[in-house]
Amino acid sequence: MKVNVEVITGTFIDAEVSENATVKELKERIATEVKLSVKRLILVVEDEEESRRLVKDDEDEMKLIDLGVKEDAHMYLFFKHPDLVYNEEKSQGRGDNASVEELSSEAESKRGNKEEDEDAKGEEKDIAMKNGEEEEKNGEETKDDDNVEDGKKKAREGENEMDIVS
């Protein structure tokens, strides 16, 4: 059975699943496409009467057919924020010492997106620069402070020259 999944980002995924597939099986198929953890996926299904219904986490073992999903059905995909998934795991006693990365799926951790790597490097530079600026402010005078002092000195010299001329 083929289902059409419209992702909140505006892209579409055509997923092929068996007639007796469960919600979890469909989410696993989608998770590999979008490279996110199954725990982060939120599905909204459209049944025969074209009414939409949010599929709850405890319904992952239900068969798609039991939810009214037929061939070429249209679904919508939304994402949970990683912090929300972490907090849910923590509240259930499964994530006390685990980081968000440990809770993410293998697919999510293997994104390997160059843009994200560059963003991370940029953020590190920003943090280093910010820390460097704070150190200058806390310990030594900054270049701006030196420029201000030079300006004041030149102004005083100019006043002294004016006194001599008059």
Automatic annotation (TrEMBL):
Alphabetized InterPro entries for the sequence: Ubiquitin-like_dom, Ubiquitin-like_domsf
PROSITE patterns found in the cross-reference section: UBIQUITIN_2
Domain of life according to the entry: Eukaryota
Record-annotated Ubiquitin-like domain positions: 1-84
Stretches with biased composition (Acidic residues): 133-148
Biased composition regions of type Basic and acidic residues, renumbered to the chain: 122-132, 149-159
Annotated region (Disordered), positions in chain: 89-166
Alphabetized PANTHER family for the sequence: UBIQUITIN FAMILY PROTEIN, UV EXCISION REPAIR PROTEIN RAD23
Protein name: Ubiquitin-like domain-containing protein
